[in-house]
Amino acid sequence: MNKLFFVFGPESAGNHVTSKILQTMGCFWEEPQKLDKFVYGEINNFTDITTQENIVLRRSVPHGRDWCDPLAIKIKFLNHQPSYEMITIIPVRDWMPNILSNYYHRATTQQEAIPILQKAWTHIGKHMINIMPFYFLNTSLLFKYPKSTIESLEFFTGLKWPNENYNQIYDADIGKHKIFQEYGFENINREIIRDNIKH
Fold this sequence. Notes:
By secondary structure, this protein is α/β, with parallel strands linked by helices. The protein has helices at 15-24, 34-39, 70-80, 95-105, 110-127, 139-144, 146-157, 178-182; strands at residues 2-10, 54-61, 84-92, 134-138. α4 crosses α5 (110-127). The radius of gyration is 17 Å and the shape is globular.
């Protein structure tokens, strides 16, 4: 059966890198996503996309200002394309890096970033019963130990990483994590980074 991999996690938890990883493992993913236009009623079909065996839909929480209903997305997609099953990947990042990343990208203060993340996890938790099966992808672990984390993702998805190069997986915000060192977390620089994700 064809698969829709629904990437559904808090903002700055690693949704983009997760989608890129699935793309590298053979899934179709585009940015901006034409699936968005279908989900929001701007187009009636997306037949050119659903000729693909495996596709990715990424939805951060919140997605812009939208706190999406994943069950509504699932029903609409599967009613249109019953040959697919939806499998959810939930990126989860250690609490402090996730707060800091929200602070870097959208919050004016670190304290403002905390309720954003709390609300995101409350929203995800409320919908988890409707998005099974799901897999938690620990992106903090991914950045430190990409090979073993990808191997676990392979087992869950049935997909394969195409080569032995895992060093292309990186934390885009690593250069901003100086606060960890200021508070005594000296080993933060063990996280693996590279300039770009290559295919």
